[in-house]
Design a protein that fits this description.
By secondary structure, the protein is α+β, with helices and mostly antiparallel strands. 30% of the residues lie in helices and 17% in strands. Helix 2 packs across helix 7.
Length: 374
Amino acid sequence: MHAEEVLAALPAADVPGAVVGVRHHGTTSLAATGVTEPGGDVPLRADAVVRLSSNTKPLVAALTLLLVADGLLALDEPVDRLLPELAGRRVLSRLSAEPDTAGTVPALRPITVEDLLTMRMGFGFVPEGPCPTVDRAAELGLGFGPPDPRGLPAPDAWLARCASLPLLDQPGTAWRYELSFAVLGVLLARAAGRPLGDVLRDRLLAPLGMTDTGFVAGPERLVPAFVRDEDGGLALFDGVAESRWLAPPTFPDGRGGLVGTAADLLRFAGMLLDDGGALLDPAAVALMTTDHLTPAQRAAPGAAPFLDGGGWGFGVGVVASPVGTRYGWAGGLGTLWYSWPGHDLAAVLVTQVLPPTASVFGAFTRAIEDALAR
């Protein structure tokens, strides 16, 4: 399968431009179509640098497993050793309770490293109804919206604010998007004794040749990102000359702070297809790409809208498709990656439209699975 085949199946009019990358049986192809902005005349290049948003999570999960292999962490250890701010957690008695002691009970156990990877730490989005604690988290500036490198406090201050709130659920019991990965980023930096971006570069990005990925973008190949309004039009979310990604962030956000290219994301996907290559142990890859949720956790109101019938490994969604298991994840600014290990195939899609365009995402996945089914 070639990237051009997948690109031809996309409804091009639904986004200004798109890049597709495919790695199939070890052969890589990239193709681009369209322009960098609505009504513009600058062609979108295949090597465009984009905001990866939530496709940051799989990279941070892989880094966690590398630090586990280094002996700096253990999956089953409480995070309290490195994040003492999160020791002695209290938990809401119900989601609608106020975030004070009267509305909480003690946590039954500490949060573990694995809880962060599986997003079962007990805090995150609450789509099922009003929650004063989440409202308070938003007021504290913990980041409950699109990624914003300039909108968050420094890691220690961020974690202190997070620790001032009770958990929503007992640790390990419920899957909630996505605050766990912000906490995980702080944990990894403390475990390594260095800023998250430096650790990520040295342990993961540089060994894989992902030279265009990081928390800071150069303006040369960065393209603008857009947000879709109620009428379907596109307004500028983040430009190039004034981009919020041109300077190092105050808070290197493990949830969605990275920029990168389709080629770089495909290099990462290829490493996993190769059972970790020379970087990750195959057992770590298996842990990362296997669903760890119970049926009840997958179906819960806080998880079902995000997982769409699938499960969750370490930093990736895991889906049983008609052509075999696929794993990967999407970014809220319009990036999508899936791998079909049974077919030795990985594919990435890059756009820059918030929220992601369902017609384009759906056409991308269908085109690949229809071809694999033939």
